[in-house]
Amino acid sequence: MRRPENVGDMFWRYRGVLLVASVPVALILAIILLVPRSSPLHVERAHTLKELRHTGPAAITKYAIVFDAGSTGSRIHVFKFEQTDGDLKLISDTFEQLKPGLSSYADDPAKAAASLQPLLDTALKTVPAALQASTPISLKATAGLRLLPGDKADHILSAVEDLLRKQPFKLAPGGVSIMDGKDEGAFAWLTLNYLLGRLSGSVSNTVAAIDMGGGSIQEAFALEDTDAKEAPKDYVTQLHGGGKVFNVYVHSYLGYGLMAGRAKLIEASLSDNNAAGASECFASGASGTYSYAGKDYPYTPRGDKGDAGKCTYLGELALKANLTCGAEQLQCSFNGAWRGNGLSKGRQYYVSSYFWDRAFETGIIKVQEAIMWPTSPKEFRAKAAEVCGLTTDAVVQAYPKVQGDSAKFLCLDLTYCDVMLTKGFKLDPGISVTLVKQVLYNGQHIEAAWPLGAAVNDLSA
Questions:
Q1: Distance between CA 414 and CA 334 in Å, rounded?
Q2: Residue 230: is it exposed, middle or buried by C-beta count within 10 angstroms (0-12/13-18/19+)?
């Protein structure tokens, strides 16, 4: 007769089943004991600094569309941003271009507007349909349209505006217009300060900008509100960015870019007894005729070598630095323009375009891969003195990056850079300025061009 099973016997018989069943029970107990009671489904871990910077409200994706309608072609920028707590972070720039420009259709406004359709198709494909109604779109035309006779430009702009209003996007205030040098300088200032992260602080935290092109040069810097109220209205532009409104002094000096400046310095050397344009801005071997804006300017050296000091004098004559601006002379810059007295004092200056080119070619910028470089006006002065003391052949040998006829003009160009900064904009020769070609932003090298500033302004207005 079999004896009755006790507990031990039953445990032994079903030991395999019990072992299998105990595994999930053990796991459940472990979770209950190890995970904090306050958040039973969340595992805590350490945050890195980068992650902490992005902790907060979810980013909102935004787009802005800017047409750059130039004289030779039309271009579109479709900028993508992420906005967090009012701060715009540039994510990408979808860029396309086509030729010819709007001015090529001077007698057919409808065809001019229709020429933009391929670029609009790019915008329609890039911006998600759900965001198109809130995406600002604008077109800024430059010199090409401005030069058209009569009201041809107005008819083209009207046709373009009609086309843009039919799109699913939001036409920005003043969205279709011809942009002058002042507007370009203002938007370029906004781009530079946006990329440098200078819009979130005080006005004094922003930087000033001087950009020297071939035909014109622009200066821009932010004004304190009290100074803006006292400034002549034509010199102040309101811009939006960083969650605030900036009053920006901006002035464009048409006819004072580097290529135009060459003509003015040659012209300053002319006199009844100097019809050949003999000038201390040129060295032996540098003679010929300089053509600019449909006019020829003969030039020849006065002696075997140039003279930076005497060339500087010619530069001051060309700038008309003593011309009155309708206020006390301390408030005037050059060629009769108002600039205020010390309104940009304490600002860091960033200078670009031909300032960069001449500094790069002559070794003021010492690192080939640099996108920014600290310098001062006196470095341009010292380099001018060095170059002006060389013959043209010696310049070619000493500065192999200088191409073509630029070797003949290098003494003049460098002197003009120095004179522009110190006599034109009244900067101290020893002040630190930053040469800038591009800005490192979010791991990318980005040019501080005006379309990005226009996009930031459209989104922030």
A1: 19
A2: exposed
What number of CA atoms fall less than 13 Å from residue 333's CA on the CB side? 25
Tokens representing 66 are 């800017």
The residue type at 442 = N
Integer Cα distance of 141 and 178 in angstroms: 5
CATH topology agreement for domains 60-179 and 258-440: yes
Q: Between the CA of residue 402 and those of 144, 411, 415, 455, what are the distances in Å?
A: 30, 12, 16, 36
Give the model confidence (pLDDT) of 51-102 as tens digits.
Answer: 223 345 678 999 999 999 988 899 999 999 999 887 899 999 999 999 999 9
* pLDDT of res. 227: 94
Domain coordinates in residue numbering, the chain: 60-179, 258-440
Catalytic residues: 184
What is the chain's Cα-based Rg?
32
Give 352-415 as a DSSP string: EEHHHHHHHHTTSS--TT-SEEEE-HHHHHHHHHHHHTS-HHHHHHH-TT--TTHHHHHHHHHH
Q: Which tokens belong to 13?
A: 């018989």
Q: Average of pLDDT values for 367-395?
A: 96
| Whole-Å CA distances, 44 to 48, 77, 164, 456 | 13, 43, 51, 38
Do 458 and 172 form a contact (C-beta atoms < 8 A)? yes
Q: Residue 203 CB: number of other CB atoms within 10 A?
A: 18
Give the separation between CA 143 and CA 180, rounded to whole angstroms. 8
* Closest of 217, 254, 275, 262 to residue 412, by C-alpha: 262
CATH superfamily for 60-179 is ATPase, nucleotide binding domain (3.30.420.40)
Whose CA is closest to 247, among 327, 186, 200? Answer: 186
Residue 214 backbone zone (phi > 0: left; psi -120 to 50: alpha; other: beta): alpha
pLDDT-derived band at 247 (thresholds 50, 70, 90) equals very high
Whether CATH 3.30.420.150 fits 258-440 = yes
Please state which of the ranges 19-33, 188-202, 255-269, 291-305 shows the lowest mean pLDDT: 19-33
